[in-house]
Amino acid sequence: MLLAKSRWRGWELLFIVAALASPALLPSHAMMINEIAITALFALSLDLILGYTGIVSLGHAAFFGFGAYSAALFAKHLVPDPLIGLCVAAVLTAALGLLCSVTILRGSDLTRLMVTLGAALILLELANKLDDLTGGADGLQGVLMGPVLGRFDFDLEGKVAAWYSLVIALVFFALARRLVHSPFGATLMAIRDNRLRAMAIGIPVSQRLVVIYTLAAGVAGVAGGLLAQTTGFASLDVFAFERSADVMLMLVIGGVGWLYGGVAGAVVFKIIQDQLSAVTPQYWMFWIGLLLVILVLVGRDRLLRPLRWGRGGTSS
C-alpha cells in the first residue's frame, strides 16, 4: 500500500513541469513565483509536524528566521555560494530544532503552542539586541550572493531566483513525499491518531517526535535561507508571529496532512495578498477571513476538488 502511494501520478508530473516552466511563461511575475515557492516550502515544513504528527506550533517562524539569518551571515562574512550557504542554514536550523524538540515531548497542545511561540519571541529579541551581528531593527543588509552553481547570476527580474527556489522546493517536496509514504511516515500518522496506542504497539514515540521536529526545522530553515539569498536581506520580520500565523492559515486553506495542501494554500494566500492588497491595502485580510468562513460553510473538499484529483486518501 505504501509502495502504491509513493508512485508518482501523471498529474503530479504535470504539476512539476508547470511549476518549473512558470518563470519562463510568466516572466513579469518571477518574484511572485519565487515568494510562492519559498512560502510553500515553509508550509510543507509545518505540515510535517502538524498534519502528519499532530504537533501544534505557533512559533515555526523561529526556524524560518534562524535559517534566513544563518544563510545571510554566512554569505556576508564567509562564502557567498548559495548552495553551500543553504546547506549551512539547513544544518544549523536542524540543530536548533533538535535542541527545541525537548519542549514538545511533554504537556498538552496548549503548552506546545505557548512554548513554540516563546522560542520564536526569544530569537526575535536576540536578533534585535545583537545589532552588531544582525543589524538589529535595521536588518542585515548588503548580502551579496554568488552565482548558482558558479554560472547563474541572480538577475533583477528574479528569474534565476524563481528557478533556484522552485528547484530547491521541489527537491524537498519529493523527499518529504517519500518520507510520509515510508514506514517511518506511517508511524508518524499512528502517533498523530493515538499516541498512547502507538506506544502500546512498540513505536518509540519520543524518538520519532524528535526526529520529525528536527527535520521539519531544517526544512523551514532552508525556506528562510532561500528568502535571504534571493532578496539579499534579512530582517526581524522573519521571526514575527504573523509569519507563523500566516503559514498556519495557508494549511487551513489548503488542508493539513496533505503535502499539496501547503502548496495550494501558499498559492491562494500569496495571490490574494498581492492582488487585493493593491486594491484595498488596509483591508485585504478581510478577504482571507471571508475565504476561511466559506471553507467552513461550503467545505474545502468541494472548493479544492480539482486540486485533489488523484489524491486517493488523506495524505499526499
Structure description:
Residues 307-316 have low confidence and may be disordered. The chain starts with a helix and ends in a 13-residue tail after the last helix. The protein has helices spanning 2-6, 10-25, 30-50, 61-77, 82-100, 109-129, 131-134, 159-180, 183-193, 195-200, 205-231, 241-254, 259-279, 284-298, 300-303. The chain has 15 helices and no strands. With 316 residues, the chain is mostly helical. The protein has one domain (14-240). Helix 3 runs antiparallel to helix 11. 44% of the residues are buried. 71% of the residues lie in helices and 0% in strands.
Low-confidence stretches: 307-316
> Structural class of the helices, strands and pairings?
mainly alpha
Anisotropy-based shape = globular
In terms of DSSP E residues, the strand content is under 5%
- Number of structurally distinct domains: 1
Distance between the termini: 13 Å
Q: What is the arithmetic mean of pLDDT? A: 84
Q: Describe the biggest sheet?
A: none
Number of helices: 15
